[in-house]
Every structure is written in structure tokens, then in C-alpha cells.
Fold:
Amino acid sequence: MLTLFRILLDRSLAAACLFLATWIWGGQIGQPELILAFVAFVITPSSDLPLSHKTPGLFRQITGTWGLIIGILLVFGLISNTMRAFDPNVLATWVVLTPFSQICVHVLLPFVLPRLVALGGEHVAIIVGANKLGRTLAQSISSDPLAQTRIAGFFDDRAVSRLGEITEAPLLGGVDAVADFARNHRVHQIFIALPMASQPRILKLLDGLRDTTASIYFVPDVFMLDLIQARVDTVVGLPVVAVCETPFHGTTNAIKRLSDMCIALTAVILTSPIMIAVALAIKLTMPGPVLFKQRRFGLDGQEIIVWKFRSMKVAEDGVNVKQATKNDDRITPLGRFLRRSSLDELPQFFNVLQGKMSVVGPRPHAVSHNEMYRSLVKGYMIRHKVKPGITGLAQISGARGETDTVDKMELRIKYDLEYLRKWSLRLDLWIIYKTVAQVFKDPQAY
Structure:
């Protein structure tokens, strides 16, 4: 219920505020309002703000995201000439009312929601396994007021001398004592955090718990690894644990593709005069083609052709490709300006419209660089679980430019994998905003 609430909260507020603004100005809710409310509901990202406590930067996150959404809607409204279908007073009120209501709700939720959840009563839980996984689980549950769960204690066969000091909850006994304790103390939940190597012990424990009413959860120790989009799913009716998965499946894939299409189409329309001017300037200042085409790795490691405006005297796409360096003599004077302002990347919006790239994602590397770094950097190829992007989390975090050492590439991959773990439409919009803000002042752009 909380997950569904989080998904619908900001979206529903955006749609509801449009209807409220229409009512305030005495208008009728007709087809245009319904269509706009539906579009706003779809493109407004699900909230990734915590529901249990207020976070720093709340105002900035909400207003920044809403500003980008309004910018996209405004551009399409002007292009399609649909703005005249709406009362300007209604639109102005909606633009102000929506972020105001979202901020108010997110400020109030940490005070209201835990009290509402508490009406359902407190649950008592025990954890089998006082290892690192079990203790991390206990800390997470105890620190979340929305969990409304009290950890009664741990059960583990190891001696206290081996376990060390346990501060999260008391050690209540060995694994054999779990079933009796659960029957005699009205335990609601049992979390089994034993390593998967302990299969015989786990099966014996489950057999002993058959005559209890407690809910039993197995927490596999794979969750202590460096996971990407970890989740539990079913395949042909059998439960499976996703250890490394793309964040874009089902509805999230549709949302990502729709946002890519909207942003890329808007960018192409707005920058078409600039692209024409850049193409003419390249044609007049250097011989050869205007566009530079290079093979890169795309989704699932498939080769794609990426387009850029030519910024160098050469067009390398062979077995060995030398990365651009500061003061590189292969870069033309015009190319230096194009690279510094990122104007050379504009043709990649057509790659996005083709479906080969995304607006936001890990930057695509030359095929030769992929082959070199995949054996040097742990987790390098995982970045190809999503489409490559024109910009990305690494680029706005200072990991742009030449990767002349393995450490620099490792830092870039670290940000790429962080993007896969934490993806949301809100994060995409924030990365786009930061990219635009940094265009002309990034010292790593050369």
C-alpha cells in the first residue's frame, strides 16, 4: 500500500490541482482538461522522497522537477497550438498550486503517516541469524517508523564470544528454540537471515515452524552483494531473485521511452536553427563530412552507430581509438568550441528518436575502449543494461572527459551503476537540469 501510495502521490496531486484550478476560476472540466491531467499524471515522476522523514532540499527537488515538466508541456503547447484551449488564469494557478501542494503534503507526511500506520498495531519480529545481514536488517526495521515492527531478538547457534557485542536486539537462544518462542510469544514475523550454505538447517527450521501462525521471510545473503535493481519476481510461477536487472521493465520502460521521445523531439525543434548553423560552419571550415559516425556499445552490448558533429580533423573508428585529450592537436578551433559547449552532441537526439540511445544514461564508449576496460574495471559491462545516454550522472558529477587512468574510468563506472540502482524520472529530469546549467562551465569538456 505504501509503495502504491508513493507511486500515485505526486502524480495524483498534479492532476487534482488542475481540476481544482479549473473550479476556482469557474471553468468546466472538459476534454482538454482531462487530456492535460492525464498527460501530467503520466509524465510526473513517482516520488522518491522518503515518507517517514523530511529530507534536505525538498523545496528544490519538487520545484526543479515541476519546472522541467512545465517547460516540456509549454513547448509542446506552443508547437501544437493547443495553449489557446485553456484559460491562462487556470494554467497559471495550476503551475503554482501543484508544487505548493506537493511540498505541503511531503512536509506533513512524516508527522501524519506514522500515526496512521500505528493504528494497525505493532508487530513483533525475530531474526534467525545474528550475522551482518541479520543485524543490518534489524537496524533498518528499527529505524523505520512506518515499519511499526519491534525486533524481539536474534536466534543464532554461535556463542556470544564469536558473535561479538550485539546492540540491535538481545540474543534469545539457538536456532532450535525459534519454534517454541514463536508459539509462546505471539511472534508475527520471522526473518531467516542464515547463509544459503546452511540449507539443511533452514529446511529443519521451516519444518519446525509449520504449526505457528507467524509470517516467515527468507532473506538470502546475496542481498549483501553489490546488487543492481534487486527485486523478487516470478518466472513461470517459480519465485526468483533478481540480482542484476535493468530498471526499465514493464511500465517503467514505457515511461522512460515516452519521456525520451518528448524531450528529444522538443530538443530537436528548439535547436534545429543551431544545428543548421553548426553544420554550415563545419562545412565551410574543414573538408569531409559534417557528421562523425562511430561504433559504440548500446543496450545489452549491441553495437550501434552514434552521431556527433565533427570536431576533429580525423574520424577514427578502428581497432585503436585515441581518446581526446586537453590541447589535442586533432581538434579544430571550431571543434574545440563545439566540444566545450557540448553542441557536438546535438545530433544524438536523432539517435534517441531512433530508439538506440536515451537522453539520460551512461555515456557510450568507443568499441575499442569497451574491449580494453571490461577486463580492467569490475562491473564495467553492467552499464549496458540500459541504453547509453547523451548525458548522465557521471557527467554532472565531475567524471566527464579523458579517462587516462583506470581510476578515472572506475569513478565513471561507479556513477553509472549508481544511476542504474537509483533510477527515477525525477532523477533523469534533475540530471538534464544540471547538464544544461553546466554546459559552458565544465572544465572537463574538451
Remarks:
- The chain has three domains: 2-118, 123-224, 251-438.
- The chain has 15 helices and eleven strands.
- The two ends are 49 Å apart (CA to CA).
- Residues 2-118 form one domain.
